[in-house]
Amino acid sequence: MIRKLFVSLLLGLLALPALGAFDVGQLMSDLSRNRGGRAKFVEKKYISFLDKPVVSTGEMTYSAPDRLEKRTVTPKPETLVLDKDMLSIEREKQKLSINLANQPEALAFIDSIRGTLAGNRAALEKNYLLHLAGSPENWTLTMLPSDQKISALVQRIIVTGSKSQVRSIEYLQADGDRSVLSIEAVEGR
Amino acid sequence: MNSAARRTFLTWLLAMLAGGAIVWNSRFSADMSFFLPAHPSAEQQILVNQIKEGVVSRLLMIAIEGGDADQRATLSRDLRGRLEKTARFASIQNGEAGSHDADRAFLFKHRYLLSPAVTPARFTVDGLQSAISNSIDLLASPAGFVLKPLLTRDPTGELVELLGGLNVGTQPNLHGGVWASRDGERAMLLVQTKALGSDTDGQEAAIKAIKEEFSASVDANRISDATIQISGPGVFAVNSRALIKGEVTRLSLISSLAIICVLFFVYRSPRLLTLGLLPVVSGVLAGVVAVSLVYGTVFGITVGFGSALIGEAVDYSIYYFVQSGRMGFAEWRERFWPTIRLGVLTSVCGFGALLFSGFPGLAQLGLYSLTGVLAAAIVTRFVLPQLADGAKMTRDLSPLGGTVAKAIHAVHSLRWPVLLLAVLAAAHLLVHRDSLWHPDLSVLSTATSEESALDMRLRADIAAPDSRHMVVINASDLETALQAAESTGEKLDHLVATGVIGSYDSPARFLPSVAKQKARCASLPTTTDLRLRLQMAQTGSPLAAEKLVGFIDDVAAAKMHCAISRESLAGTGLALAVDALLLPHSGGFSVLLPLHPVVGEPSRPLAVDSVRDALTGTDAMVIDLKAELDKLYNDYLREAILLSLGGLMAIVVLLAATLRSPGRLGAVMLPLVLSVLIVIAGLSLIGERLHLLHLVGMLLIVAVGSNYALFFDRSNDQHRLDAETLVSMLVANLTTAIGFGTLALSKVPVLHAVGVTVGPGAILALLLSAIFVPRATTT
User: Fold this and answer.
1) Is residue B149 part of a domain?
2) Contacts with B164 from chain A: Cβ below 8 Å
3) What integer pLDDT is reported at residue B1 of this predicted model?
4) Is residue B365 part of a domain?
5) What is the ipTM metric for this complex?
């Protein structure tokens, strides 16, 4: 409790000088202060051969720096847990675990979301060119893969947010299909 | 040499030459069959087949160490390519992308014949609607991106159904696109040899090829610090054979040299020495000939037992030369031969008991030693005196004999301490009776602890399949076999659904029965029907029926070609999977359905009983290979106990019938029983875990040791034992102890156990016989 208080106090103090120069470094340091939280999500996948997007909804929990849990409720219950480099997916009775450390392409993809949530600039810049627009209250971070192996999976990632809160993540896949993940915090931090 | 002697010699020489010819043409083997049951039960037969021919027995695990991760990946790829060219391997896996393309292509092409979900209901309007909307839902999942490219051709998700049934389990890690160990420090490959597991030459050639190709690859890629490690049943078999081969030579040499030294010390005559070895050579040769004629194959371990046989067989000529020195052959024959003959017979009882063993190795050891001892005794009695032609020992042994006699007199006072020691030994054995015995067959394996540790590590790194449990069904022909696999599979599906088992493999998964293929084919609608039904099913769906042309075409194509056979699988890894699970034999086919535990719970034992319950009323057998192996060992052990007791009984009966006096019988048997007690307690104290062969050793202490105890019994009739007799006993005992003692040096557990038991046991038998010899006769 005291820690939370201290963090928000610190946040408030630091926000003042940041007003003048909002850049990637500033955003990252804002994001890195987000220690975690719970959020509802709506994900829409726009796929070429479907007339309407596939919509899934559920809840996400993030604990800094490297645990992310995504519980899909509709259309089919599914739990995805990313803990450090272990990705596990549980759906109906099937359970699958993948060690991402051995799959550099998948890891780079996952790092885009994890790096953003954790404000880990180095992790993001390893694989992406970053471009930031907007203000601390309403920013848009565009990531373009710098490696061909990754651009074979994803063309562009656009993350929007407000202060340390990520609001949406959009993936434009290499085949032109697109998915938009909208996030709404349940407990603001 | 007179003409009778010449005739005898020629007969002997002819017999030896004939024996030599038989041995020359004998088949020698050092494989696992030494341990495999001679008369297996149905369950054991499966075990035997798996060990000799099963897929697991043909797997070799390879680890590449050193260099950096990229270099290891390069070597892994290069090695795979090189090994493929050698044509020695049925499959070479290293996790490379593309190595499963042929399998996936086959599964996708034939998905409507292979998918268990293909039923008439699947292709009704409702069935299509539900299957397709299910697939669309799956697109929402991260797993959906695998599915997306194929969705318009496979909207009902048959490929997902097919892949879902496969043992996804834990896959090895990937590093640089190839399999790596868990810690990423080694690149891993898994190969399956074409040679059977029982083909040790083939395994050796395959292992050699891997090593050669690896060093060629290292040179070609200029990666100097990379090394390779290989493990698997084939490696164990090859190492074991090399070990046994080396030991046969080494042990026989050690034992022969030591015995020759002893003999030379006693005889001081090269001629007597040479003559004295004739019965030994005859015995060893006769042993191999008998085994070769009876069993067809001579095990390396059996030949290794020769070093003990040398020590035992040389006794008879020692008796002859030392004892007959002063009195001549005729008197020796009269005075000593009956005792020696009785000793031969007790030895024969001991070794003969092993003949009835269902453990082939043990039965061979029994036949080999029995024949050897008999031949040596016969040659000593009937050939040696003729050839010796009056050759005598010139050395005066009476000073030595006097010393021995004094020593015997002195050790008399040890009676009570020895009895006390025996009581303590018995108490020790009683207290530790539960921990004396090693519980499983692995104790007889020649694998060193380093080899076992390497095997365990590679197995864990590669997540090698655990094939401990399997369901086995026998059928008269292929179609029946596949149908049985399918009907049993349905029951197993239920067990998978309820979490009893994680998954199972079945040949019918890639090669369904003809009946099943026909039924699935008949479930597929005509193009017109399918188009119509899709229109109705997809109204309102985000996936419009018009986008599913690929699906309609594929169903039409599948309906046209409704037959897959074993030949259709050629060129895919699936063919191997089917062959491994479908074993042809003279009476038809055996179907194997290996069971896998629930993923993530490898520590929880698979509930075999639940599987058995689910399959009651069918012909399917549920087999736990580990339990079968343990049971096999326990059967051997129980049988060995019975045989040892039987052998002991035979010896007691033989002695009782010959000695005709309970007192004399007791006097002969007491030192032997005490020797066994003290040796076994001693072994337990120095930390030997006893097993089957120690038990056999206990029987042999009695069988071999009685030879010496019997001479002391004779001293009852003949007053004191003279110097020559005492020396001959001492020397004969020494050679026997050398022969068996050499076995104790062996790294082959079977030989080591017998040696470490009988070597000290023989000495102790003589010593205790001396201590307990009735006092009246020695004073």
Assistant:
1) no
2) 94
3) 61
4) yes
5) 0.77
